[in-house]
Task: inverse folding
């Protein structure tokens, strides 16, 4: 658990981060979202002290981050950034081994860990371990960047716009992979983005920032339904609100007993995609099936319409 | 249809090579100019000898064959391998022929006559080296292959010297009378050029790192080094006489170490000062160009300042720093000749002695090794820069 208490960073007379307090649950994926200049990166960089706070403090599992030697603190926290920051003169394996090497792990343990991470990120070690970063695609570079951040098994991972440099298709895949890996490793993740869509898609909780202040800190559904300020409402976009709300739930969650015609819908498909499929195939209901093909019920247009509106 | 296309392609490729036209023209000019210069002794005015007078009959034919073959191969669009082979064969022929000319023009038993390469020889050598360099570029030789080629060239050159084909040439007669001095000055030259480079690296690298870290130091430090570079070398020697003379007299042990107002100490110091700007500036530029994301990631992962510098920043800046080393070494090998003006030794000793005696052969004895040394240093360091850059984009 990370407790941020009254954190402030002042540059001259400009407060980049202004008295922010929030608690980040262990094992959750927390997203800080805001426009550029909102102070979100500065806030995140104060957690691993790449920026030293002007006032306030960060407690990691009850321990004041300011009391630890700064290099030790950073080696315990994973760090992944937008343009991955891979070392161009080192191979993929050497890049991933960076923090374990700094921590003085023995060679066999490092090699085993690098191998494990490459498998986890679907990168064949025989093919990728000895390549240099410039020999990888953008998506592969991004995966190596995250693998490197996770190498020393940190309990906390900081990610600054990690998918910003990826094209939309690769980005969607990378976001899904991150979700899956986070569930598997139960790492606490603090992720910064300017993209509300990404925040809603990934976040267990979302912190919205503007002008250095924390405006709202809540689960995505609450932010969509009860935006705390008109600014947050604008950030969500009134036109997209129902669809974003739908995107938070899966077909399995809204499946009801009954029959339906036509092609089946995957149980883990989000409701926005289900709605699109129903509209496109001119159906009012579709069968929902698990991955193994077992039909668990149906999802109806009427139910989707009910879920897409403000709860009454 | 297919046949006519093939014919069109053949005609198009059977054009003249543009650079080859220049090489062939230079070969023509070189053949027309005097191949060798004959002098009754080392300081009288020379008598220009065209190739047909400078060479015995059989060698005249060989000369004509070599020039025509080289011109033909350069003019036509021939393969890079053939061009390289031609350039090498032409160099061997020219080297042998100038030696033959020296023996042919020197009357038997005569000790005072001098035969030196004429303007024609130098133009032919220039044309041959263009053909050689161009074919090396076209072959896209890798860095290691180029260093190997340099080593082979140096070995062939040493073999030619040892075999005695050139012993009739004036420059080697100058060498023969002062062989021991030559090697002593060669050593002095290398110590001046390489030693001042080493000292400049020892000071310039840390200075560059410091300037790159502290932005406030950048302008004053680089401007000071820049100002030093603008001082003419002779003036710098003059400026250094005072302080070094004082040190020599007042600081115990300085005189024993060879520190005097004139001599090797001020020459070394001047070369060192001139080298500082390229070393420090290239270090700064190299460090500045390390991608910000890479530095940010290195900090964020918990590397200390020292770990970041040695395992990330300096390795990534290395190609630019090595380029600085290349600039400094080539510059210092050339500049070290002026050390002789203040008694600092080096190949400049022969250049200035030759100027004083109006003995052009003696000037060449100083100038030719200097040029060859600078050339070799440039090839080796270019290859090194390419090797360290090669592993990444």
Result:
């Amino acid at each position: 658990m990370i407790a941020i208490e009254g954190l402030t960073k002042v540059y001259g007379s400009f407060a980049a981060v202004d008295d922010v307090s929030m608690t980040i649950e262990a094992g959750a994926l927390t997203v800080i979202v805001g426009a550029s200049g909102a102070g979100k990166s500065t806030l995140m960089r104060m957690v691993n002290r790449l920026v030293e706070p002007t006032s306030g403090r960060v407690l990691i599992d009850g321990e004041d981050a300011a009391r630890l030697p700064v290099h030790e603190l950073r080696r315990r926290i994973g760090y992944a950034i937008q343009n991955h920051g891979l070392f161009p003169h080192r191979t993929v394996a050497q890049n991933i081994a960076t923090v374990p090497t700094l921590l003085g792990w023995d060679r066999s343990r490092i090699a085993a860990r690098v191998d494990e991470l490459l498998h986890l990120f679907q990168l064949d070690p025989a093919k990728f371990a000895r390549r240099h970063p410039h020999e990888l695609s953008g998506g592969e570079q991004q995966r190596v960047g995250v693998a490197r951040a996770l190498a020393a098994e940190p309990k906390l991972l900081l990610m600054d716009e990690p998918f910003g440099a990826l094209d939309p298709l690769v980005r969607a895949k990378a976001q899904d992979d991150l979700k899956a890996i986070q569930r598997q490793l139960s790492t606490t993740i603090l992720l910064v983005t300017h993209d509300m869509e990404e925040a809603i898609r990934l976040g267990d909780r979302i912190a919205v920032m503007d002008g250095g202040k924390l405006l709202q800190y809540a689960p995505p559904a609450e932010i969509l339904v009860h935006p705390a300020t008109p600014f947050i409402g604008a950030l969500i976009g009134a036109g997209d609100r129902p669809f974003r709300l739908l995107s938070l739930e899966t077909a399995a969650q809204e499946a009801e007993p009954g029959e339906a015609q036509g092609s089946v819908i995957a149980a883990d498909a989000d409701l926005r995609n289900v709605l699109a499929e129903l509209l496109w195939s001119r159906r009012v209901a579709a069968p929902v099936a698990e991955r193994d093909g077992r039909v668990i019920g149906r999802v109806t247009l009427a139910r989707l319409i009910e879920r897409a509106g403000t709860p009454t | 249809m297919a046949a006519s296309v093939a014919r069109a392609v053949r005609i198009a490729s059977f054009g003249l090579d543009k650079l080859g036209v220049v090489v062939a023209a230079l070969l023509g000019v070189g053949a027309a100019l005097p191949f060798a210069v004959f002098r009754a002794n080392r300081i009288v005015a020379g008598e220009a000898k065209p190739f047909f007078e400078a060479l015995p009959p059989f060698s005249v034919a060989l000369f004509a064959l070599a020039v025509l073959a080289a011109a033909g191969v350069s003019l036509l669009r021939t393969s890079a391998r053939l061009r390289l082979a031609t350039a090498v064969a032409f160099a061997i022929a020219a080297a042998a022929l100038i030696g033959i000319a020296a023996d042919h023009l020197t009357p038997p038993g005569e000790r005072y006559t001098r035969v030196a390469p004429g303007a024609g020889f130098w133009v032919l050598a220039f044309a041959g080296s263009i053909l050689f360099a161009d074919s090396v570029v076209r072959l896209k030789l890798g860095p290691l292959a180029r260093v190997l080629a340099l080593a082979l060239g140096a070995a062939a050159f040493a073999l030619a010297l040892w075999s005695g084909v050139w012993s009739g040439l004036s420059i080697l007669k100058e060498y023969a009378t002062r062989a021991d001095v030559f090697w002593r000055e060669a050593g002095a030259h290398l110590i001046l050029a390489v030693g001042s480079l080493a000292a400049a690296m020892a000071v310039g690298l840390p200075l560059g790192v410091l300037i790159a870290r502290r932005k406030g130091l950048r302008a004053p430090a680089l401007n000071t080094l820049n100002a030093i570079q603008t001082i003419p070398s002779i003036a710098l020697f003059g400026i250094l006489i005072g302080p070094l003379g004082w040190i020599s007299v007042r600081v115990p042990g300085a005189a024993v170490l060879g520190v005097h107002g004139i001599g090797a100490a001020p020459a070394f110091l001047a070369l060192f000062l001139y080298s500082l700007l390229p070393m420090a500036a290239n270090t700064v530029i190299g460090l500045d160009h390390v991608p910000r994301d890479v530095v940010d990631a290195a900090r964020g992962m918990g590397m200390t300042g020292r770990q970041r510098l040695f395992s990330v920043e300096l390795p990534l800046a290395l190609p630019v720093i090595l380029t600085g080393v290349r600039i400094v070494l080539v510059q210092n090998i050339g500049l070290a000749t002026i050390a002789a003006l203040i008694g600092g030794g080096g190949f400049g000793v022969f250049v200035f002695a030759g100027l004083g005696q109006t003995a052009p052969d003696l000037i060449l004895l100083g100038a030719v090794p200097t040029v060859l040394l600078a050339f070799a240093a440039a090839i080796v360091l270019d290859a090194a820069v390419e090797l360290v850059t090669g592993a990444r984009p």
Summary: The two ends of chain A are 34 Å apart (CA to CA). Residues 168-185 of chain A form the longest helix (18 residues). The mean pLDDT of chain A is 90.
